Amino acid sequence: MQNRSILITGCSSGIGYYCAKELQKNGYRVFATARKLEDVKKLQSEGLEALKLDLNDSQSIKEAVKEVIKRCDGKLYALFNNGAYGQPGAVEDLSRKVLTEQFESNVFGTQELTNLVIPFMRKNTEGRIIQNSSVLGFVSMRYRGAYNASKYALEGLSDTMRLELMDENIFVSLIEPGPIRSDFRKNALAMFIKNIDRANSTFSKEYEKKLKSLESKADVPFTLGEDAVFKVLLHALESKKPKARYRVTFPTKLFTFLKRVLSTSILDTILRKVD
Ligand SMILES: NC(=O)c1ccc[n+]([C@@H]2O[C@H](COP(=O)([O-])OP(=O)(O)OC[C@H]3O[C@@H](n4cnc5c(N)ncnc54)[C@H](OP(=O)(O)O)[C@@H]3O)[C@@H](O)[C@H]2O)c1
Question: What is the mean pLDDT of residues 92-116?
């Protein structure tokens, strides 16, 4: 795998940041991207080959891909679609604009980027597309509808791409983490405050609880470090037989099982209890 090139989105913090550094240590040529210039500079100062890429901006995606392809002479081995955020809020409190923005980052920008790199992978007769999905990409929880829907969409696109590309030695893998220590909750809290009219919502009481939980610095149960995602990312990159799905953390494994064996109504009873 020495010198294989990989492009990663969302490297300013959390999983993307950790995986970019670890992959570089493992001999990969890592193109670590972030949407804010100050983060790009910070990554560069830490010795990473960093570029600006904002998933909400087609021009930014195109420019980043053009530069990466130039630098690696078209030999891009892998794409780790990691950049995303969670927009909390009950479904009926999501404006069209807020829902669109959630999809712009987590789905449309991500797919636009993927579609730009596939032709190079095809030409190289190999490639790995690894999608950072979530346990919330296959079970739904209250006040997470926008994020749920975006990750379900990512799963749908990934399952389809896997079928379309499997004859071309381009593998599509989904990573489905449960709680991982990162800035995810901090960033979700900011989007909650910014975009949801909590005081005038039918759910205002529940929102106070949600706010407290997002503000809490304590780990939610079964939280793992970013290394748990890195471990399976490495398998998806290096195995001759990468998996379609990598389930990370106990809650993901548990809900995979429960979704298989329980009726929707019984599963709903359990999911309703999750705050
Ligand atoms: N942490 C968890 O519990 C958990 C669980 C399941 C799945 N995941 C998934 O893991 C991935 C990484 O999240 P994380 O946990 O590492 O959280 P994080 O620390 O908040 O990192 C998310 C990254 O995505 C970036 N991002 C957001 N919107 C973007 C956009 N429009 N363009 C480019 N980058 C954008 C963020 O950049 P800024 O700093 O500029 O906002 C940040 O670098 C996400 O796909 C998330 O859905 C996380």
Answer: 98
